[in-house]
Structures are given as C-alpha cells and as structure tokens.
Amino acid sequence: MRPTKRELRIIELMRDYRAIRNRSFGKSIPPVENVAFILLSKSEMLRLTGEEGNHGCSLSVVIKGVQLPFIVGLAEDDGEIVQRTTLVHEMAHFKVNLKFGRDMRHGKNFNAEMRRLVRIGELDGWL
Prior knowledge:
Helix content is 49%, strand content 16%. By secondary structure, it is α+β, with helices and mostly antiparallel strands. The strands form 2 sheets. The protein has a 3-stranded mixed beta sheet. It has a two-stranded antiparallel sheet with strand order 3-4.
C-alpha cells in the first residue's frame, strides 16, 4: 500500500524534528522515537486547544512516574512553512517544560528559548 499524503507529511515532520533536535537542542528534548505526531483539521485543533487560529499544540504527560511520549499536533491545513515554524515552537515548549517543570505557557523562559533559536538561525529562511 502506498502511504497517504498525511502519512508522508508526518514522515517529513519527523525528519525535520530529528534534524532540528540535532542542530539546535541536543539531548535537552526527547528523540523523535519518543514523540507522536498528529495532523489535525482546523476544527479538531479548535476543539483540542479551545482557541481559534492555533497552528499547533504539544503535550507531555507523566503518569505514575512514567514519561509517556510527547505529542505534537499540527494543523494539517497549514502549509509547510507554518508547520515547520510551529514544530520549532512546540520543540521549544518541550525544552522549557523539561528544564523548568510544567511551564507550557509563553512566559519568560519560553520567550528566552525562542530568542535563542532566532539568534542561532534556526528560523532563518522560514519566517
């Protein structure tokens, strides 16, 4: 069976994640094997996040001391550029969450991480 367009896009996102992690995050975030990727319609994204216009979301759960896979959800209707920059955004959340605890907001730690990513050029050519 041939992979669907959605499956091919998830494979591309997994490759992007691996490359970005190697280049900009190292071991501060989980390897791609510990991450689940899902593509959601705009209505599914709205139901999940409760906010209109979200392009992505991430989730990290620890149950009884066991770290479950990190989940990255991206809006499937978005183009490659928006998906990739959203992926970097969610990876920054992973790092901040792991380093500072359950800090998934867009606070000072997250903003500092995003500035670091801009400074090292991770978003060059994508914004």
